[in-house]
Design goal:
56% of the residues lie in helices and 5% in strands. It contains ten helices and two strands. The chain has a two-stranded antiparallel sheet. Helix 3 runs parallel beside helix 5 (103-114), helix 6 packs antiparallel against helix 7 (139-155) and helix 7 (139-155) packs antiparallel against helix 10. The radius of gyration is 20 Å and the shape is flat. The protein starts with 24 loop residues before the first helix and ends with a helix. This is UBN2 domain-containing protein. Pfam families: Retrotran_gag_2.
Amino acid sequence: TTQSSSLLTPNLQHFLTIKLTPINYLLLKTQLILILKTYNLLDLVTGRDPCPPTMLTSPSNSTQSIPNPSYISWCQRDQLVLSWINASLSESTLSLIIGKNTFVDALNSLNQSFGAPFNTCTLQLHMQLQNLKKNDSHVSTYLQQAKYISDELSVAGKILSHEEFNAIVFNNLGPSFHAIVSAISTRPTHVLFPELHSFLTSEEIRI
């Protein structure tokens, strides 16, 4: 998510081969998600790349505010992907995102208009995540499978909080990980996926 916008401008005609209509939403959404993954922008959908503050306190004068470079960079990413959304819409669907100023707002509007048939799919994904067990697989494999399902849920409009995701993972790790789960659960700060992965893989080596 830190790449410059000059590196993130593909010719969408080579990627988005269709225009959105009321009957092909899932197909187009699948293409868009592949593009987001290719250009490391899926975190805009999952919430792992939230909008930062617009201003920061000046390091040289605590009474002054200065523009936040991270916000400027985030806006560039967001508006780039929003332009991809615009490019994917047909004339009959373009009106659905009028007044939507961010990519997430536009995607939510499209989900509300066309996503109802996928509620069953969302439920199935949630059940799949709840039922995913580590069993004899490596921790890294288990976590990547869980993250993949979580990302798919986010794309479908069901964004899991870090606490929800971690709770599901902890519940299905097995008794060998109870000690590290207890230690992580008592931490005062959020444990994000990279840190969670590091903790659990280290514990796997230890045990």
